[in-house]
Design brief:
Elements lengths: L1 E4 H6 L1 H9 L4 E5 L2 E6 L32 H4 L1
Parallel strand pairs: 1-2
Antiparallel strand pairs: 2-3
Length: 75
Amino acid sequence: MRQVNLVEASQQLSELIEAAMHGEEVIITKDEQPLVQLTPLLATQRRRQPGNAKGLVIISDDFDEPLEDFKDYMS
């Protein structure tokens, strides 16, 4: 955890933002009291691309056939 006072934070803002982006906890203090915590925003989600998993899932030909264990219940 990195703590810096408000004056230092204003001089090192880009460095502190970079540290927060890399997962470091950055807290800005004023009069030795925690004031603000820098945390990165979650990355925006990309739009779905249909078909990007094509060929990864294979369904057998007998997928929808009754299971052997349940044949007694099917009649």
